[in-house]
Amino acid sequence: MNPPARDLAQYIANRAFIVVKAAIWAENEHGEVLLIQHADHSHWRIPAGQMRPGESIEETAHRELWEETGWTTDHMVLEGLHSGPELRQLHTSGDEDYYVIALFRTRIIQDDLVESRVNSDAGLKFFHTESLPVLNEFTRMLLARSN
Questions:
Q1: Cα–Cα separations (whole angstroms), residue 96 to 15, 19, 79, 137, 147
Q2: What whole-number distance in Å separates Cα of residue 58 and Cα of residue 71?
Q3: Burial class (CB within 10 angstroms; exposed 0-12, middle 13-18, buried 19+) of 111
Q4: Which 3 state secondary structure label does DSSP give 90?
Q5: Which of 3, 97, 117, 134 has its CA 20 to 30 A from that of 109?
Q6: DSSP state, 11?
Q7: What are the backbone angles phi and psi of residue 42, rounded to the nearest 5°?
Q8: Cβ atoms within 10 Å, residue 116
């Protein structure tokens, strides 16, 4: 007789991982912050993503900005390095990710290309920091820590 899977779960060790990410606080010339609307949810977030093996954290930030917006920038400044128990994600498997997030700041100059992407269905929009939409948990935390 085989015990149910839920009974076996107590014998399987859950794992904790440290995940290094880069996040980008991109502003336009009016000081508005660039946010991306998540496709599966109604919340918004700043561009961010996981560092790949062999990549520097600065390269991660540039790659993520390009992958998520289609834009590049010549200059990014490290705003801060964020970690701690509140930057934890618990998966349904019981595994945990503890994030170490390097937050970079940059400026996006709005030209016709930027305007066309922001005013399309791409899910990109600049917001005044006083009138932000519903943010995901990590974006809300990073922006609060950086103000």
A1: 6, 10, 26, 16, 28
A2: 15
A3: exposed
A4: strand
A5: 134
A6: G
A7: -90, -5
A8: 10
In this prediction, residue 1 has a pLDDT band, given cuts at 50, 70 and 90, of very low
Q: How confident is the model at residue 6 (pLDDT cuts 50, 70, 90)?
A: low
What confidence score (pLDDT) does residue 68 get? 87
Closest alpha carbon to 139 in 96, 98, 82, 84: 82
**pLDDT the model gives residue 114:** 57
Structure tokens at 117: 């992407």
Tokens found for residue 71: 């834009």
Structure tokens at 105: 């700041």
Query: With contact defined as beta carbons under 8 Å apart, do 33 and 127 qualify?
Result: yes
**104 within 8 A of 79, measured Cβ to Cβ:** yes
Backbone angles phi, psi at 18, to 5 degrees: -100, 125
CA distance 99 to 18: 6
| Banded model confidence at residue 59, pLDDT cuts 50, 70, 90 | very high
* Cβ atoms within 10 Å of 14's Cβ, excluding its own: 11
